[in-house]
Amino acid sequence: MSSTAPTALIAGASRTLGLGLAAEYARRGRHVVGTVRGDTRTGLHDLADASDGRVTVEQLDINEPEQINALRDRLAGRSLDLLFLNAGITRGDLSIADVPTDMFTDLMVTNALGPMLVAEALRPLVGGTARADHRRGNRQTADSVIPGNSHEQPASNNYVTRCQEYCT
């Protein structure tokens, strides 16, 4: 793999959507850093084993600020061109009237606050290539904007979680 290959970090890459994205980005030549919660072997570990060095596994619980900071420190000096925050939880299929307050709080901390903390901590690693060029016809972009973002600023100067898919 070329050292100039683009690098994607996918938080929550142990299974389903995150694992699928990690596999596809690696297939397309990107280096992928995928995160898993806990130390149980996952599909991401199998993908990393078969990836010829294109996929690496990092441990991260997005609810643990010390783990977020440790990941940032381990990745210091690297440049990310894509940060995909997929980590999250669900607690079943309850109607809103049946969701207890403590469950709702857990969901919001994990699915809303956690990704914002990760984005803030890792944003210095996201290079200028993460900015979307909306004039290119062969590129689809979906932004999940965190308060304070302006699309007129470079990605390294704002809080933005960017998911980019290059169509080939």
From TrEMBL:
Residues 129-157 are annotated as: Disordered. This is SDR family oxidoreductase. It comes from Streptomyces broussonetiae. It comes from the Bacteria. GO terms for molecular function: oxidoreductase activity, acting on the CH-OH group of donors, NAD or NADP as acceptor.
